[in-house]
């Protein structure tokens, strides 16, 4: 690294910037000095801020200060710069060899110079800087703002000072706002002095932290306290200063609004910080009376709306002069109210003056909003309502109206128009029966079609008007809607007088005759037909040939089966045994280096994906390089569109001349190397297409005699495209056999290109779907191309959206699962991962199917994915949209009902009040709960990512229709309020991270109703509190329960003589227990799946578990048993047995009558176990044994079982063995420490990116077996279980 400090540091600015850039480069070329470099960068930034302060002081006081003072400041500034230049020269000399191979020789010298540099800065601060902290000289708006920006830039590099930075930026916005409003004189001076004091205090706090980091915990607490005291003051004198400034701002109203138009961003920034301040005030107010809390939450949301309006160029421009002026006045009044509030006031009741001011402000804010989003314009002008499953939408509306009519909450409201709603309900029931009558005729009769559309439009309008009344809007429009509905009823009677009012609310008949599906559930790694030669050729290219890193590509058009073929190769036993490491990622057309690196690392390592997502590319690439170094690896890149994708990854993939390979699929021929091998995938022959069709429809080769001719004709029409074959099979499997000729005619209706032919086949498949299934399929359009979709979350969304109809025989969850199975059977959806109990765990769409869903969803106004623009849909999905675009689009979408976000962005937008589904994706709420969601009275699905939230506010009771409440990323147990018992609709209460759960309130349980519909729960319990059974009796229909022990434990008071009682849960099917001490357990007899994770259960519990008659899956993780001697007749129904982390497990004895139905055995990290019982090979149902990170002798015993089975003619038993060696090489040990441990490495230069969240379930793993990642024993409380998340 060549530098010249003398030439590069000619000015104070370049001196500091050069030092920071040099340190950044140094971090990239050295190892082991990351923390020192990071700390030194903070010190340099600190000096830079103080130097700027001295410079600004000289500029401000050049003419008025004493010559001696000015000279003193010049000397101090020169000493700061001299210190930087001198120490940078020393560092340059020490690190001069870091760019060549001798850098290891100088590393000690570099570390020594870095340490000396740090000490020099500390000594300088102690000697000089503290003397400058007692006088504040700037008092000029521009200078103070420059200084705040400098300090904020320093604080931005340290997350522990995030709060301080936010407060400084608020003061900056306040100063700008005051200047915009014409504030001058003493009021402005007082504000400037206060801001200057706050900035100096912030730098002082950084210096305190800089000097005292020996006791990190104590220093952190001290810094947090000082930030609250010094930078976030609640001093009455300060608040008085604020209010005086605002009063002056309000008095200086100008008739000219051009200044506001030009600087509305300034007002928007100020309003943003007002919203933040108010939200912070509300956080500790957990016991605030609901009316006061609701009033405050509405106030915050209206301010948020005003902020968006100020940032929306077109909407703000449309406002009249008086309205623009009103916006500036409202900003002043809102700030006065906020600065007058206190936590005690909010908790105990607002002062009368404040309450009146708040009431007036809310009226004005609603008036402004009505001017921007006029409901008359939205509801009574032509509007494109969704056209998917229209009768299903009508049914959902009728169900909601019936619930509303019977709801006791509305009885308290005299103004609630129950009679009008009852009339609307009766008329809509009649119109619903009329639509059923004309369903088959409307497509042939233009008049009936037009009437159908008008009925649906007025039904949607009625829904919006009534839902708006529920959230507090006026019901002046209900009368107009009711009149329109009555007119349509009259017209319907005249148009079709044979329609009877008592037709009921039956659903429309389906378009095609349905039969029980013949399809089996497909996986991504389908059995190939006719391509065995291709598989062999590709495998040969991968394991033979040059020792240098080489490329093998599979090239072909969409739908030809490239990914299916590559998956088959990737999982072939020859590949598994040849390559030490395998990794894969999906590239697609939209990708980033960061995304590719994270995918590859997650496919190799057992670490949390969140840990990698938090890291920069510059850190991820070396990690991947280190993992692959000295290992023969195979990288699978799926769906590559350009060479640029490889260029991004090239430097992260070492070439050790050991035969490593890159396998990739692409629709086009990409030449990564001149002589790289390309396999052009051929079309299927007619005979191969016929075989594939037979297997997909009937599960075996051969058609029934009556279908042979038409079956072959359909196979031939598929043109050798596997995707078209499986789509056709999906249609045939659900069509009566006498209708196959019609399917063949549909496939011959046009002559198009292959891609277009696939799309035509998709349209045919879509037309054959029942109306219930169409929205379920289109919902996949909300996800990214090639994304693996967690099934449970998807089904919960379908239920909340109202897609799943109620039946008496099945729960909504089972019905939703049937819907998914139907889509899978039709080959429209692929199962990418299966659960251990069977069924889908994750699923995805083929690229062409996804493209089709996005296209149809947009055409039918079903779903809008916001990438670069917006329309006015009811379902919105944000993906890769800029935050400003999200804010602006929200202003134009006030009637949106669903919002799915996949961005990590701040909640800087206003949430429409009528939302039913809200998932804020990767947006993290650090240490607080977003109170604004409690205004969304219609919410049925709420998914948030939180960090460190320990309780849920009582205001959650406002969400009386909530069905699913999902928390991701929360590393703490979360206390639910007493009001949770009042949300009778709850079906799923889930924290995705296995080491956290919800804590139920147990006081006065007898007075609260039970949660009879709750199906899924993650629970945290203190067994010593004797409350578990009391809680469980309130949850009679739980089917899936994850239960963990809380941190508080009282050994003296064990419940029921040390028993955990779950036998009261007669519907329980899946139970996971984590971290419990030695307890006996009473299990329900219906239990099908049981998981133990790091429990200290007594050995006597194992025989008890073995007697459970319906148990199919058993996972035992982290057990401490030395041996396991099985008894006769145990585990009669067990299909899957998983043993992990039995570090002391040495001997396992079993007999031939154990596990009579066992299908799969998984043994991971049982390092002391020498063999598995040989009699397991006699199990007639055993299909798979998987062994990882165990002893070589255990692996040999598994191989022996397989060989014995082969000798007896049984070729069905498959084994998978990975990492089973007794003597590992150093490189393998290095790989294991990286892949198997969750310990963090020495702190790098980005130490400020503090500890990341733990892993939630890896729902989208490509492995058929659910993967579980575990930390070292000393961190047992922080491991994550992939099978438990959502």
From TrEMBL:
It is found in: Cytoplasm; Membrane. The keyword Hydrolase does not apply. One of its GO terms (cellular component) is cytoplasm. Residues 1226-1286 are annotated as: Disordered. It is a peripheral membrane protein. Confers resistance to late blight (Phytophthora infestans) races carrying the avirulence gene Avr1. Resistance proteins guard the plant against pathogens that contain an appropriate avirulence protein via an indirect interaction with this avirulence protein. That triggers a defense system including the hypersensitive response, which restricts the pathogen growth. This is Late blight resistance protein homolog R1B-16. The gene is LOC113700709.
């Amino acid at each position: 690294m060549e530098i010249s400090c003398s030439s590069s540091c000619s000015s104070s600015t370049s001196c500091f910037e050069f030092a920071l850039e040099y340190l950044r480069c140094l971090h990239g070329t050295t190892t082991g000095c990351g923390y020192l470099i990071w700390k030194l960068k903070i010190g340099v930034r600190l000096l830079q801020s103080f130097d700027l302060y001295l410079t600004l002081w000289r500029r401000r006081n050049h003419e008025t200060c004493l010559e001696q003072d000015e000279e003193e400041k010049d000397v101090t500034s020169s000493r700061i710069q001299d210190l930087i230049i001198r120490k940078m020269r020393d560092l340059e000399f020490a690190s001069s060899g870091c760019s060549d191979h001798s850098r290891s020789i100088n590393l000690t010298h570099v570390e020594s110079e870095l340490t000396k540099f740090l000490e020099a800065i500390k000594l300088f601060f102690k000697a000089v800087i503290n003397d400058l902290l007692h006088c504040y000289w700037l008092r000029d708006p521009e200078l103070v703002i420059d200084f705040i920006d400098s300090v904020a830039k320093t604080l931005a590099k340290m997350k522990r000072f995030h709060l301080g930075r936010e407060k400084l930026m608020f003061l900056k916005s306040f100063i700008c706002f005051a200047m915009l409003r014409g504030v001058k004189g003493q009021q402005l001076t007082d504000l400037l002095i206060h801001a200057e004091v706050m900035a100096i205090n912030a730098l002082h706090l950084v210096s305190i932290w800089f000097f005292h980091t020996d006791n990190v915990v104590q220093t952190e607490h001290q810094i947090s306290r000082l930030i609250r005291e010094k930078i976030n003051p609640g001093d009455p004198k300060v608040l008085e200063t604020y209010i005086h400034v605002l009063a002056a701002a309000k008095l200086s109203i100008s008739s000219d609004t051009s200044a506001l138009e030009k600087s509305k961003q300034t007002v928007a920034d100020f309003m943003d910080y007002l919203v933040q301040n108010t939200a912070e005030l509300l956080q500790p107010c957990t016991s605030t009376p609901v009316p006061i809390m609701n009033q405050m939450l509405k106030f915050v949301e209206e301010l948020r709306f005003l902020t968006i309006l100020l940032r929306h160029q077109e909407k703000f421009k449309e406002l009249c002069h008086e309205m623009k002026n009103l916006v500036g006045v409202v900003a002043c009044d809102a700030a006065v109210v906020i600065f007058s509030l206190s936590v005690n006031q909010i908790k105990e009741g607002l002062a009368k003056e404040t309450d009146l001011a708040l009431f007036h402000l809310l009226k004005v804010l609603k008036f402004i909003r009505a001017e921007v989003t006029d409901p008359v314009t939205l509801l009574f002008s032509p509007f494109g309502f969704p056209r998917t499953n229209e009768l299903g939408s009508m049914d959902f509306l009728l169900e909601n109206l019936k619930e509303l009519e019977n709801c006791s909450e509305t009885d308290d409201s005299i103004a609630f128009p129950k009679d009008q709603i009852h009339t609307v309900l009766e008329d809509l029931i009649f119109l619903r029966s009329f639509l059923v009558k004309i369903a088959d005729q409307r497509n042939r009769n233009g008049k009936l079609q037009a009437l159908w559309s008008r009925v649906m439009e007025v039904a949607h309008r009625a829904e919006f008007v009534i839902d708006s009344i529920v959230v507090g809007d006026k019901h002046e429009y209900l009368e107009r809607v009711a009149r329109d509905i009555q007119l349509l009823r009259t017209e319907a009677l005249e148009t079709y007088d044979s329609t009877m009012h008592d037709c009921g609310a039956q659903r429309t008949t389906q378009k095609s005759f349905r039969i029980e599906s013949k399809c089996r559930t497909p996986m991504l790694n389908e059995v190939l037909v006719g391509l065995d030669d291709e598989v062999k050729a590709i495998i040969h290219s991968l394991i033979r040939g040059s020792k240098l890193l080489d490329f093998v590509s599979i090239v072909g058009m969409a739908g030809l089966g490239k990914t299916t073929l590559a998956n088959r190769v990737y999982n072939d036993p020859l590949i598994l045994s040849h390559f030490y490491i395998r990794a894969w990622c999906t590239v697609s057309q939209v990708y980033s280096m960061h995304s590719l690196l994270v995918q590859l690392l997650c496919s190799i390592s057992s670490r949390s994906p969140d840990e990698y997502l938090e890291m920069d590319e510059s850190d991820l690439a070396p990690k991947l390089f280190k993992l692959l170094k000295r290992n023969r690896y195979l990288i699978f890149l799926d769906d590559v569109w350009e060479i640029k994708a490889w260029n991004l990854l090239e430097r992260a993939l070492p070439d050790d001349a050991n035969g490593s390979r890159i396998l990739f699929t692409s629709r086009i021929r990409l030449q990564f190397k001149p002589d790289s091998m390309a396999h052009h995938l051929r079309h299927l022959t007619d005979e191969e297409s016929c075989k594939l069709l037979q297997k997909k429809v009937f599960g075996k080769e051969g058609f029934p005699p009556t279908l042979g001719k038409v079956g072959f004709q359909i196979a031939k029409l598929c043109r050798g495209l596997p995707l078209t074959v499986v789509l056709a099979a999906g249609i045939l499997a659900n069509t009566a056999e006498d209708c196959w000729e019609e399917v063949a005619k549909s496939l011959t209706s046009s002559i198009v290109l292959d891609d277009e032919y696939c799309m035509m086949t998709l349209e045919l498949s879509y037309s054959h779907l029942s109306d219930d299934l169409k929205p379920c399929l289109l919902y996949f359009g909300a996800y990214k191309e090639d994304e693996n979709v967690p099934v449970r979350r998807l089904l919960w969304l379908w239920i909340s959206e109202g897609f799943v109809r109620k039946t008496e025989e099945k729960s909504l969850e089972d019905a939703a699962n049937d819907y998914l199975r139907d889509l899978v059977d039709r080959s429209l959806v692929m199962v990418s991962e299966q659960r251990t109990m069977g069924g889908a765990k994750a699923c995805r769409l083929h690229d062409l199917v996804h493209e089709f869903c996005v296209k149809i969803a947009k055409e039918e106004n079903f779903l809008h994915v916001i990438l670069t623009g917006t329309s006015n849909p009811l379902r919105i999905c944000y993906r890769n949209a800029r935050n400003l675009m999200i804010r602006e689009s929200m202003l134009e979408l006030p009637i949106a009902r669903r919002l799915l976000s996949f961005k990590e962005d701040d909640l800087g937008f206003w949430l429409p009040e009528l939302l039913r589904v809200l998932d804020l994706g990767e947006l993290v709420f650090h240490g607080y709960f977003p109170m604004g969601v409690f205004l969304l009275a219609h919410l049925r699905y709420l998914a948030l990512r939180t960090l460190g939230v320990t309780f849920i506010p009582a205001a959650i009771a406002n969400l009386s229709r909530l069905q699913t409440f999902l928390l991701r990323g929360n590393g703490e147990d979360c206390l639910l309020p007493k009001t949770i018992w009042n949300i009778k609709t709850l079906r799923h209460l889930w924290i995705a991270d296995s080491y956290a759960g919800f804590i139920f309130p147990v006081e006065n349980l007898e007075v609260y109703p039970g949660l009879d519909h709750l199906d899924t729960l993650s629970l945290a319990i203190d067994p010593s509190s004797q409350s578990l059974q009391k809680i469980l009796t309130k949850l009679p229909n739980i089917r899936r329960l994850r239960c963990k022990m809380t941190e508080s434990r009282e050994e003296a008071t064990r419940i029921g003589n040390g028993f955990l009682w779950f036998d009261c849960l007669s519907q329980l099917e899946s139970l996971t227990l984590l971290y419990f001490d030695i307890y006996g357990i009473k299990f329900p007899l219906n239990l099908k799946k049981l998981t133990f994770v790091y429990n200290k259960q007594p050995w006597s519990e194992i025989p008890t578990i073995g007697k459970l008659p319906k148990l199919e899956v058993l996972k035992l993780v982290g057990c401490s048993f030395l041996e396991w001697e099985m008894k006769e007749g145990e585990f009669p129904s067990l299909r899957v047995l998983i043993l992990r982390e039995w570090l002391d497990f040495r001997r396992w004895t079993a007999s031939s009558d154990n596990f009579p139905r066992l299908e799969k055995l998984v043994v991971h990290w049982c390092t002391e176990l020498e063999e598995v019982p040989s009699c397991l090979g006699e199990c007639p149902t055993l299909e798979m044994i998987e062994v990882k990170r165990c002893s070589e002798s255990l692996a040999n015993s598994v191989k022996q079982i397989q060989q014995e089975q082969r000798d007896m003619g049984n070729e069905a038993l498959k084994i998978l063995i990975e990492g089973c060696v007794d003597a590992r090489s150093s490189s393998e040990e290095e790989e294991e420490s990286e892949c198997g441990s969750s310990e963090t490495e020495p702190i790098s230069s980005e130490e400020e990116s503090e500890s990341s969240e733990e892993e939630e379930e890896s729902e989208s793993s490509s492995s058929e077996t659910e993967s579980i990642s575990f930390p070292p024993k000393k961190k047992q409380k922080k491991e994550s279980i992939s099978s438990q998340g959502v």
